[in-house]
Amino acid sequence: MEILLFIVVFGALASFVLFNLYRRAKQIHRLLNEGVPAQGTLVAKRRITQKSRARFIFSYEYEADGRQRKGRSVVSREVFDAHAEGQALAVRYLANKPSVSAPEFVLEKARQDLKR
To answer: Which residues span the membrane (predicted)?
Structure first.
């Protein structure tokens, strides 16, 4: 019975993770093809360390559809170190869902990765 419970819980968790990865990949694809360019601002940089592994996160703001929007993006250490809070960022968002966005450099990396 415990093994069955483990399998069900693990399967549900794996399904959730895979669904979210698929959803974000689809969003990135749409942003690359349909994204509306906007000027954004890097408002915060955060480094999160868990079990000696660091993640680097940008929080940014941009205007879309006449409203101020907020976005977050995981970035590489190099990108994190190369940008300062308050710095301008090129951003793209979806016209039909302006809350979906990504910095241009994230999309450019995705474009390069797709060419491989």
So the answer is: 6-22
pLDDT at 22 over 80: no
Domain that holds residue 107: 2-115
| pLDDT higher than 90, residue 73 | yes
Any idea which residue has 């995705």 for tokens? 110
Domain count, the chain: 1
Cα–Cα dist 61/63, whole Å: 7
Residue 100 pLDDT class (50, 70, 90 cuts): very high
The strand order across the sheet containing 88-94 reads 67-75, 53-64, 36-50, 88-94, 97-103
